[in-house]
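Fill in residues.
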């Protein structure tokens, strides 16, 4: 069943029920924009800017987008990009593109003008829906966009674009007469781009549909559940986790911002039952609770049943600490690169907190194996590259046959992640293949060192990177972000590290903020770039 069929089904079965809510703590009542044309603003006692949309209106808006594109001559297989912050308009536009038979291309809202230009060209995009935050960046590349349809989603539409609200409202709200099948191409998502310009990941409709079913199965979602979505919708993880709510007809809440106060307030006021967090946000919540800045008793949180984390390795100490504050919570870790449609080609599973530290076992309809450099399975317990196979593996890296051939072999997606498997079949991430540090001939896996250091009560966040060294080739350097209001010395770190084998102990300690990208992953290329120059100067001074 194509993912668009789920929306149409929900519109018929649950038409008057709320499908989506948007909350923005940064916008107050007096700052509300004139999006009332969209007829989505609902009165609320909250000081939050809040809008909501029913399933029937959601489907109607998607139909209007689809018919608008068809009227403009967009045909099946053409590409339509979305460059928006999380908002209530996002998903109706997303589904409208899919209903037209076109391919949806979500763009990272942190992309520079040059990166936007590059991604639009790489995906052969014909239409761009963009918001007011991106006017400057779009104007910077306007000379390259003359052959594209531009729809502005906001007030005071620029002269070179069309007003999305006006154009959509003038289009038909009936179902478009386009046959969409599971075998059709559905979406292009972009890799994080931490090693250069991002790759375009091409997915079929069947991949999107399997993600929805898998999410519902993994987290035992019911129609009564309410999912709080905080990460950006351009990322597979955010969209595909919400797909579980779509699959069951449950309510979703889009929250802008991720402060502990706004998360707790949204969970309380919207009665959310499932929350997906990134590691930094979970760390911030725990720090706020520990310091007394946030008091759980001020909120209605008893209905919150599941906290799950994805997108990066999770320190076991973080989850142990979480369970001290929320002992009744179910917990899950979800692993899945965008090349596997995100969400959980491997997942820990509910009721397996005793295995925290693992990413889990193969997900619903998925297989996994760990191989050596010759693609031969390694022995249990040995480290190798994690490969996955299942219904959500990408079709290809669009316009990049060499990278596709390297990533997909015999239907297996080579993830680039180094992993090992224990005696119970649970998979543990060791590190990114490209992040392994070779120091004096020994392989060091930064994630293992990070997990160890993260257990120190003074450490808020930590990243371990390799820095060039004349004698050893590389050394392990730990960038340590100390908890607010605390101080820490190198001697304390060294004393804490004595339980690590000597060769794994960080040889350089740097007290600084840990840089993470929008999906919560540590930006190690940026950290290496920043601190390698310092290391070179140090070695020159020593010689």
């Amino acid at each position: 069943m194509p993912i668009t069929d789920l929306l149409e089904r929900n519109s018929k079965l649950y038409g008057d029920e709320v499908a989506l809510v948007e909350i923005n703590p940064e916008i107050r009542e007096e700052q509300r924009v004139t999006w009332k044309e969209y007829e989505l603003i609902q009165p609320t006692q909250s000081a939050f800017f809040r809008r909501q949309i029913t399933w029937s209106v959601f489907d109607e808006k998607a139909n209007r987008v689809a018919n608008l594109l068809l009227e403009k001559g967009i045909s099946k297989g053409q590409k339509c990009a979305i460059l928006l912050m999380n908002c209530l308009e996002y998903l109706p536009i997303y589904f409208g593109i899919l209903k037209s038979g076109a391919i949806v291309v979500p763009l990272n809202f942190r992309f520079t003008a040059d990166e936007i230009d590059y991604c639009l060209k790489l995906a052969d995009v014909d239409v761009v829906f963009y918001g007011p935050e991106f006017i400057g960046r779009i104007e910077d590349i306007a000379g390259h966009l003359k052959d594209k349809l531009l729809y502005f989603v906001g007030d005071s539409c620029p002269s070179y674009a069309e007003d999305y609200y006006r154009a959509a409202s003038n289009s038909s709200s009936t179902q478009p007469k386009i046959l969409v099948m599971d075998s059709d191409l559905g979406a292009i998502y972009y890799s994080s781009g931490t090693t250069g310009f991002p790759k375009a990941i091409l997915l079929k409709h069947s991949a999107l549909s399997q993600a929805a079913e898998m999410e519902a199965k993994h987290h035992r979602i019911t129609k009564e559940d309410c999912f709080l979505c905080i990460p950006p919708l351009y990322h597979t993880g955010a969209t595909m986790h919400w797909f579980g709510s779509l699959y069951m007809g449950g309510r979703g809440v889009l929250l802008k911002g991720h402060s502990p106060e706004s998360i707790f307030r949204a969970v309380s006021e919207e009665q959310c039952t499932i929350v997906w967090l990134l590691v930094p946000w979970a760390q911030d919540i725990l720090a706020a609770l520990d310091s007394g800045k946030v008091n759980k008793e001020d909120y209605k949180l008893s209905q919150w049943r599941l906290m799950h984390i994805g997108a990066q390795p999770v320190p076991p100490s973080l989850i142990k600490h979480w369970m001290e504050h929320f002992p009744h919570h179910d917990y899950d870790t979800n692993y899945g690169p965008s090349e596997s449609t995100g969400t959980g080609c491997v997942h820990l599973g509910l009721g397996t907190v005793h295995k925290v530290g693992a990413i889990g076992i193969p997900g619903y309809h998925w297989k996994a194996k760990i191989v050596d450099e010759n693609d031969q399975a390694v022995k249990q317990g040995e480290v190798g590259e994690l490969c996955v196979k299942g219904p959500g593996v990408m079709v290809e890296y669009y316009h990049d046959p060499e990278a596709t051939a390297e990533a997909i072999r015999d239907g297996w997606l080579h993830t680039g992640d180094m992993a090992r498997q224990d005696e119970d079949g649970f998979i543990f991430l060791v590190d990114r293949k490209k992040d392994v540090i070779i120091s004096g001939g020994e392989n060091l896996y930064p994630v293992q060192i990070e997990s160890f250091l993260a257990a120190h009560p003074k450490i808020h966040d930590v990243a371990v990177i390799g820095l060039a060294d004349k004698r050893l080739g590389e050394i392990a350097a730990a960038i340590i972000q100390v908890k607010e209001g605390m101080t820490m010395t190198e001697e304390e770190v060294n004393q804490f590290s004595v339980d690590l084998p000597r060769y794994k102990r960080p040889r350089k300690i740097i007290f600084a903020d840990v840089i993470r990208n929008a999906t919560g992953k540590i930006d190690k290329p940026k950290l290496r770039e920043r601190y390698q120059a310092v290391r070179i100067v140090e070695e020159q001074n020593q010689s």
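The CA atoms of residues 73 and 150 lie 14 Å apart.
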